[in-house]
Amino acid sequence: MVATLTDKAYIAGVAETEYVRGTPKSERQLILEASAAACRDAGIDPSTIDGIVMAWKDVPTNEDFIAALGIKDLRFHSHVHIGGASPVAAVVQAAAAIAAGLATRVLVPTGHNWFSRPVRLSSMEQTPGGVGNVPGAEIRNNLENPAGLLAAMQWYSLHANRWFHETKADPAGMETVALTTRRHAHLNSKAYMRDRELTSEQYRASPVLVKPFHLFDICLETDGAAAVLVVSEEEARHMNGRAVAIAGGAEGHAECPDDLSTRPNILDMGITKAASRAFDMAGVRHDDIDFAEIYDCFTFIVLRQLEEMGFCDRGEASDFVSGGRIALGGDMPVNTHGGLLSQAHGIGMNHVIEAVIQLRGEAGPAQVEDAHIGLVTGYGDFSDGSVVILHN
Amino acid sequence: MTTANLSPVPLMPDSSLYADYFKGLRDGRLVAQTCTGCGALQWPPRELCGHCQSSTFEPVDVPTEGLVYTYSVMYRAFHRAFADKLPYGVVVVEVADGVRFIGRYAGPDPESIECGQRMEAVFDDLGPDSGSVAWRRAEDPAPVSP
């Protein structure tokens, strides 16, 4: 039997805080504020939610949510811990809980003060083990850190450099992703880089921090939180008509999910397994996807996910993204909000929210014409993957 | 930041899982683990064998040379210990089927590292008993002993 969640759950409310560099508010406060705002966006009283699937973070706890939102009867909660793949996987888990009848109004929040934390992903002051919340502490501390491998951009470079070696992929696709998403951010009033132009000359002149990544291949570090509210079909029917249906979704994990070095093939990713499951469940094909919001902590990982999802063959993504295909107005616009690269590091919940906004037809100047089916991915830790397909 | 974090040497030397590995490095050997239940070679070390779920292992020496599977070259230091070493390389070297060791690159011209290059392990470039592993290209001239 093929498991299916198709149209059993809807995203009825979305909200995000401002994305800033520097905030006096704690992550807990920001996440709770985004959560309350997502309920209001759906037109419901926050005290009536009965489920929480916390994406990535341990705090706020379920107790924090109950206290802050005045929740009367929390029937279900869980935490999903697969890094940037968590928000999309958490949406799928919320849909599963709803389909199973465990809850009817499930909040899916996340947030992180990437900029204001004492330890930054990009920092010279990176302390061993300091990124936190990543799996495989023994591997990090005993094998990688002593070699000077400490930061996320270094992990991704191991993958990228092998990809270039095996496939002779054209690095031009990385620039295409950087420049395209920046132009999309100019249309988004909530984007951190809404007013900052990025030219090809600037991209190429920017320093290489870790081979092969220029500065503009690497996502932003911002502070902020975001949340969505997932509800049952019956609940959605009584809401304001803006709910967006979940057509299908899945998560996936690579072999050796805590160790890139010894994975039999470093090009194998969680999304390699998750994508076909999500497409099958949704009953759609690649050609049916009107737009895609693809987790973009690095430009190259957008290219790799397009390949692993089957939009093109391995090594061919630079061709796939050329000629304006992934720009607004192209065949399949990608990261219409600016993504992690140029909107903000919303841990990919900003990608889920953008897909909902597009399918509501509320994306303003960035609206994809005739948007009916949108795909969202998450990528986390050492290649965990998640995919959700939404429709209106 | 504590001074203990400033040196590129093992940060969890008390981890029992890695005791044989670190002992091997001090002796100039690379040590992985073999499952006594099914004979599978396992690296990195873990509590259970991923094939048969046995929890008993024997240390096994693996070759101290191999081919670069992948690598990185850093132009930014993410820790002060590496600030005066830029650009520096990190290589992942496959020494046996499915067994790859990550380590510092200690040879000349890190910007010319490529996948497929043959590397030899270096155990004492930070001094004797430093308990670390680095790699140099087999084709490069051997360093002159001090």
Q: How would you sum up this structure, described in words?
A:
Chain B: Residues 60-124 form the ChsH2 C-terminal OB-fold domain. Chain B: Residues 22-58 form the ChsH2 rubredoxin-like zinc ribbon domain. Chain B: InterPro entries: ChsH2_C, ChsH2_Znr, NA-bd_OB-fold, Thioester_dehydratase-like. Chain B: This is OB-fold protein. Chain A: InterPro entries: Thiolase, Thiolase-like, Thiolase_C_2. The complex is a heterodimer of chains A (392) and B (146). With 392 residues, chain A is α/β, with parallel strands linked by helices. Chain A has a single domain (9-115, 220-391), classed as Peroxisomal Thiolase, Chain A, domain 1 (3-Layer(aba) Sandwich), CATH 3.40.47.10. Chain A has 13 helices and 11 strands. Chain A has helices at residues 27-42, 62-69, 86-99, 137-144, 152-167, 172-185, 200-205, 233-237, 270-282, 299-308, 317-320, 339-343, 349-360; strands spanning 9-16, 51-55, 76-80, 105-113, 208-210, 213-214, 223-232, 244-252, 291-293, 373-380, 384-391. Chain A has a 9-stranded mixed sheet with strand order 3-2-4-7-1-8-11-10-9, sandwiched between helices. A two-stranded antiparallel ribbon of chain A has the order 5-6. The longest helix of chain A has 16 residues, at 27-42. Chain A starts with 8 loop residues before the first strand and ends with a strand. Chain B is mainly beta and 146 residues long. Chain B has 2 domains: 15-62, no CATH class; 63-138, Beta Barrel (OB fold (Dihydrolipoamide Acetyltransferase, E2P)). Chain B is built from 1 helix and 8 strands. Chain B has one helix at residues 19-26; strands at residues 30-35, 41-42, 57-62, 65-74, 88-96, 99-105, 118-122, 134-137. In chain B, the strands form 2 sheets. Chain B has a 5-stranded mixed beta barrel. A 3-stranded antiparallel sheet of chain B has the order 2-1-3. In chain B, a hairpin with a 2-residue loop joins strand 5 (88-96) and strand 6 (99-105). Chain B is globular. The N and C termini of chain B lie far apart (33 Å). Chain A binds chain B through residues 122-129, 138-139, 141-151, 154, 157-159, 161-162, 165-166, 207-211, 259, 261-262, 264, 266, and chain B through 1, 5, 8-12, 15, 17-18, 21-22, 43-44, 69-83, 85, 88, 90, 92, 98-104, 111, 114-116, 132.
